[in-house]
């Protein structure tokens, strides 16, 4: 039987940890798992404002919520799921998958739910972070309303899309019916037979409308800007295929590698340059879908065709959105909303429609708000509002000026429009675990250590990113999206290249990027220029033909050897 010390000691460390991770979504989970598997460290605390693991997949539970990245790409490389039921997984299935991973890696015992980090302050003398936690849960807050955790390293894994954004429309507060944001869905509200308005038609709006149309007496969708919608071609994954993936993982890895490579090479081009053939192909797919849905309504095709290039905003995949708009109980309103009344929505021109429910599929406070709800203060008490007074930026989207021993996941210029964000998160988590390793080593020696990015390197990196982004659809003069800063002058959310380029950039820590201070600095660096941390190589290195030839060749060699050995054995037995 395991010997446990008595009295138990874990509770005494309540306010102390080597690493604090803010957020229990995919990024926070990945960081925690990397601490366990790469740093052999369980001295960490995950702070989660909500009451469950899963981040965005826990927050977004609206009807029809699903992922628009193929399921095969939507898992950690080290926890691939052979059992996805569909080509594009639904929210509940993704959340169940994440729960299983949290369970497997024992993350629950590190996670404090209903615990919001309100501020985090770097202590220059102690060379540690002091994170203030507000307890949001009713019962837990009877013990105390909040407390502070001291840690050697701080990780922000709060994501880019965690603060729902309500539309700023006059009269919104005066509406007497029900209002819901899609990221705060109230399932206790009965939709049956209701008159429903949906504001917004981004990735969320186009998923929720087809489901609402099935139950509502009427749905009106308010569209300010049409999106580029192309077919999703969703199907279920057959039992045979799932069994094949389960019992022969190389088949799963190979299929994932093919999709990864296609997305990172071909699909990237759709978003990359408005003039290239792939971008034109996306326009054609959209036009074909419009024509197939409304064969005779040329005026509507024009109305629903965006005037900005594909890739400027999220490219939208759907098989059921346009068909839902053709249902008799669904209408489209493209006149601008002028105000919301006590009972409905008024559009320009004065027409008012009455509703029981207004659904705001209006997105999130993104862009400039990477750590919106947390007051972060670095060296000399410098607040993040000053560090980012111009634009949010970070070295590789991870390390911030004046913030020692700090790592951010899914930070500035790390979002994608062409592939799975999990691939980027894994690369960031891997990089952060490389920095944490040094801090843990210093901790073991009992010596302080502070690793902070150099301002000139950070700026040089961001200039390179911005220069590359200038040519992309994100920067097109007609493009207006949450990828840009509020003044519209700079793309602050998205990465400027392929996933492989990003992963390669993060496959080593160049110490020339950082100022390393503290008594442990000499011991840690030992004159080294860089620290190799590697990357997960998932792209296809060989074609299917070369692979098939190789496998056949290997089978032939093994077969030949067996035959040869068989003949030799027979000769031997005859003697
Ligand atoms: P998005 O992509 O930010 O979409 C928000 C939608 O809401 C978009 O169509 C907006 O129109 C619309 N919107 C916002 N405010 C208003 C007002 N006041 N009136 C009318 N329409 C409005 O959020 P999603 O939740 O759909 O998707 C977020 C991300 O999740 C997505 O990019 C994927 O990465 C997954 P606009 O285009 O601004 O004219």
From TrEMBL:
TM ranges are 545-569
Q: Any keyword Transmembrane helix?
A: yes
| InterPro entries per record | FAD-bind_Monooxygenase_sf, FAD/NAD-bd_sf, Flavin_mOase-like
Keyword list, A-Z? FAD, Flavoprotein, Membrane, Oxidoreductase, Transmembrane, Transmembrane helix
Instruction: Reply yes or no: does the keyword Cytoplasm apply.
Output: no
Write down the Pfam families for this protein, in alphabetical order: FMO-like
Q: Any idea which GO molecular function terms this record carries?
A: flavin adenine dinucleotide binding; N,N-dimethylaniline monooxygenase activity; NADP binding
The record, for SUPFAM superfamilies, names: FAD/NAD(P)-binding domain
Q: Which PANTHER family match?
A: FAD_NAD(P)-BINDING DOMAIN-CONTAINING PROTEIN-RELATED, L-ORNITHINE N(5)-MONOOXYGENASE-RELATED
Family the entry assigns: Belongs to the FAD-binding monooxygenase family.
Q: What is this protein called?
A: FAD/NAD(P)-binding domain-containing protein
What is the scientific name of the source organism?
Rhizodiscina lignyota
């Amino acid at each position: 039987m395991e010997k446990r010390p008595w009295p138990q000691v874990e509770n005494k460390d309540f306010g102390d940890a080597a690493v604090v991770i803010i957020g229990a979504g995919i990024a926070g989970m990945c960081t925690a798992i990397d601490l366990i598997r790469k740093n052999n460290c369980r001295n960490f605390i995950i702070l989660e404002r909500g009451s469950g693991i899963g981040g965005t997949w826990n927050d977004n539970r609206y009807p029809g919520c699903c992922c628009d990245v193929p399921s095969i790409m939507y898992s950690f490389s080290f926890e691939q799921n052979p059992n996805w039921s569909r080509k594009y997984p639904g929210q509940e299935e993704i959340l169940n998958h994440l729960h299983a991973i949290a369970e497997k890696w024992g993350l629950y015992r590190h996670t404090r739910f209903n615990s919001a980090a309100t501020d985090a302050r770097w202590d220059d003398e102690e060379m540690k972070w002091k994170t203030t936690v507000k307890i949001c849960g009713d019962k837990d807050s009877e013990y105390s309303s909040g407390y502070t955790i001291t840690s050697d390293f701080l990780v922000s894994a709060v994501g880019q899309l965690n603060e729902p954004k309500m539309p700023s429309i006059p009269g919104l507060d005066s509406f007497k019916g029900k209002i819901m944001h899609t990221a705060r869905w109230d399932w206790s509200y009965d939709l049956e037979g209701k008159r429903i308005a949906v504001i917004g038609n981004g990735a969320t709006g186009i998923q929720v409308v087809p489901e609402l149309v099935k139950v509502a007496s009427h749905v009106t969708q308010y569209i300010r800007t049409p999106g580029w919608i192309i077919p999703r071609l969703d199907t279920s994954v057959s039992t045979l295929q799932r069994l094949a993936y389960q019992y022969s993982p190389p088949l799963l890895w190979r299929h994932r590698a093919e999709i990864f490579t296609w997305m990172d090479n071909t699909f990237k081009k759709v978003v990359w340059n408005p003039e290239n053939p792939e971008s034109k192909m996306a326009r054609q797919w959209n036009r074909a879908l419009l024509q197939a849905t409304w064969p005779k309504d040329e005026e509507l095709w024009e109305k629903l065709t965006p005037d900005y290039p594909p890739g400027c905003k999220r490219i939208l995949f759907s098989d059921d959105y346009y068909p839902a708009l053709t249902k008799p109980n669904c209408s489209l309103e493209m006149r601008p909303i002028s105000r919301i009344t006590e009972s409905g929505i008024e559009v320009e021109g004065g027409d008012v429609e009455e509703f029981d429910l207004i659904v705001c599929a209006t997105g999130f406070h993104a862009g400039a708000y990477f750590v919106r709800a947390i007051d972060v203060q670095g060296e000399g008490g410098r607040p993040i509002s000053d560090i980012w007074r111009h634009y949010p930026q970070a070295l590789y989207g991870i390390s911030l000026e004046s913030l020692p021993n700090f790592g951010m996941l899914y930070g500035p210029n790390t979002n994608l429009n062409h592939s799975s964000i999990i691939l980027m998160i894994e690369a960031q988590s891997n990089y952060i675990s490389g920095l944490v390793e040094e801090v843990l080593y210093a901790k073991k020696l009992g010596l302080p250590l502070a690793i902070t990015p150099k301002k000139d390197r950070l700026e040089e990196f961001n200039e390179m990113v911005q220069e590359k982004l200038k040519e992309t659809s994100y920067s097109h003069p007609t493009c207006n999206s949450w990828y840009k800063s509020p003044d519209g002058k700079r793309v602050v959310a998205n990465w400027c290249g392929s996933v492989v380029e990003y992963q390669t950039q993060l496959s080593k820590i160049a110490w020339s990027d950082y100022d390393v201070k503290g008594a442990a600095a000499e011991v840690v660096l030992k004159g080294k220029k860089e620290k190799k941390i590697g990357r997960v190589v998932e792209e296809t290195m060989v074609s299917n033909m070369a692979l098939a030839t190789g496998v056949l060749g290997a089978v032939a060699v093994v077969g030949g050897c067996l035959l040869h050995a068989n003949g030799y054995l027979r000769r031997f037995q005859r003697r």
